[in-house]
């Protein structure tokens, strides 16, 4: 019996993500939680003739506890999105509290669940989640992932045109974090990279780093990326679900580095140290399997070129500040 819970299921990301998860053959129970509108979304999706059952919950009558109980995977796109002119960090004041409360729910009612955090600012909300789980004595770095998959999806799409490659066949590693200059796509190991001019690479990197802003501006006050994010969140959720089923895969995600029982954590910290900082979290390709994050694939950091090294130095400096802000929100 595999149960997936989506917190923030009635939102711009939550609705299409819930639809995609309702279609997943490895899901037996889908549980939707939101503070508004979720009964309607749940009723609508429940008519779909896939084999999973579906329940939806508002906060009243212990709704969060019921939604989360016995979940194997919890996906969190709850919280406010950006409007033009805002940074992801501007969302911290509202989203930090939302994520903290959901983390308390997970720690209490689904302590063994895998958790995918989509809510921004990811660089800070994942540290918040970690601190709450740790406070409750249930933190396992194998099971907590910040979702940075949209940066990989964008990298694949944007570089495909330039290289004449099929986007669906690419798997660009994106390291660092999930906001502006903390997003570092590693294009240099792609076949055909040497054909790109310096200006083309710079434009490509900039477009990935500010891909979110492109959508925020185009939506003009009506929110940020929702459909491409639902796809990206589903892509990672699919890998986690297949991992639970014994299938191994690799994906970039924002994960905890300070646990040496995690294969590759120590090496990653040492490499990140070379770029100027000591970080508790970092987005990097990870090996996924039945235990969740089974290894950190630090090899990508050994192959970066000079341009990427410069980008990494900038990213590491900013990430330290974002991570400390999230940690301090819980630890004081
Ligand atoms: N990690 C990533 O790559 C991306 C992250 N995001 C982030 O995802 C978040 C959600 O974005 P959208 O779906 O566009 O926003 P939205 O406003 O359309 O939906 C958010 C949903 O969360 C719900 N919510 C608020 N407080 C809640 C709580 N305490 N418990 C459960 N649900 C709650 C709202 O009622 C709403 O339905 C934002 O923070 C956004 O910045 C967006 C795109 C990409
Ligand atoms: O830009 C935003 O605020 C939403 C987001 O994280 C993205 O689209 O990458």
Second CATH tier, the architecture of the largest domain? Alpha-Beta Complex
Distinct ligand kinds: 1,4-dihydronicotinamide adenine dinucleotide, oxaloacetate ion
Relative helix content: 40-55%
By DSSP, the count of extended strands is 11
Cα-to-Cα separation, first versus last residue: 39 Å
How do the helices and strands follow one another from N- to C-terminus?
A: EHEHEHEHEHEHEEHHHEHEEHH
Query: Class by helix and strand content?
Result: alpha/beta
Spatial strand sequence of the major β-sheet: 3-2-1-4-5-6
Radius of gyration: 19 Å
Largest sheet: 6 strands, parallel
| Number of individual domains | 2
Put simply, the count of helices is: 12
Low-confidence stretches: none
Task: Please provide a written account of the structure.
The protein is an alpha/beta fold. 45% of the residues lie in helices and 17% in strands. The protein has helices spanning 14-22, 38-45, 63-68, 92-109, 122-135, 149-163, 198-209, 211-219, 227-244, 265-274, 299-302, 306-331, and strands at 3-7, 29-33, 53-57, 73-76, 114-117, 144-146, 173-176, 183-186, 249-256, 281-289, 292-296. Strands 3-2-1-4-5-6 form a six-stranded parallel sheet, with helices on both faces. Strands 9-10-11 form a three-stranded antiparallel sheet. Strands 7-8 form a two-stranded antiparallel sheet. Strand 7 (173-176) and strand 8 form a beta hairpin. It starts with a strand and ends with a helix. Residues 81-82, 88, 120, 150, 212, 215-216, 224-225 line the site of oxaloacetate ion. Belongs to the LDH/MDH superfamily. MDH type 1 family. Keywords: NAD, Oxidoreductase, Tricarboxylic acid cycle.
């Amino acid at each position: 019996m595999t149960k997936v819970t989506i917190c923030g299921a009635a939102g711009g990301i939550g609705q299409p993500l819930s639809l995609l998860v309702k279609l997943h053959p490895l899901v037996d129970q889908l549980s939707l939680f939101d503070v508004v509108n979720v009964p309607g979304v749940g009723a609508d999706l429940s008519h779909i003739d896939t084999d999973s059952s579906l329940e939806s919950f508002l906060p009243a009558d212990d709704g969060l506890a019921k939604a989360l109980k016995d979940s194997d995977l919890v996906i969190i796109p709850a919280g406010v999105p950006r409007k033009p002119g805002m940074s992801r960090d501007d969302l911290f004041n509202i989203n930090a509290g939302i994520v903290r409360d959901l983390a308390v729910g997970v720690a209490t009612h689904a302590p063994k669940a895998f958790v995918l955090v989509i809510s921004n600012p990811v660089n800070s909300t994942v540290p918040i989640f970690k601190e709450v789980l740790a406070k409750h004595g249930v933190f396992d770095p194998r099971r907590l992932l910040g979702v940075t998959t949209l940066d990989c999806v964008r990298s694949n799409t944007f570089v495909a045109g330039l290289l004449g490659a099929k986007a669906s066949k690419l798997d660009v590693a994106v390291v660092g974090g999930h906001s502006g200059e903390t997003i570092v796509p590693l294009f240099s190991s792609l076949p055909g990279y040497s054909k790109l001019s310096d200006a083309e690479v710079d434009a490509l990197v900039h477009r990935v780093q500010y891909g979110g802003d492109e959508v925020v501006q185009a939506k003009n006050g009506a929110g940020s990326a929702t459909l491409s994010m639902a796809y990206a969140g589903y892509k990672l959720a699919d890998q986690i679900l297949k991992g639970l089923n014994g299938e191994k895969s690799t994906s970039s995600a924002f994960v905890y580095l300070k646990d040496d029982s995690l294969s590759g954590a120590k090496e990653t910290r040492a490499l990140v140290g070379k770029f100027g900082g000591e970080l508790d979290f970092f987005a990097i390709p990870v090996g996924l399997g039945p235990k969740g994050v089974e290894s950190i694939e630090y090899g990508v950091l050994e192959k970066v070129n000079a341009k990427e090294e410069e980008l990494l130095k900038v990213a590491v400096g900013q990430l330290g500040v974002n991570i400390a802000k999230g940690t301090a929100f819980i630890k004081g």
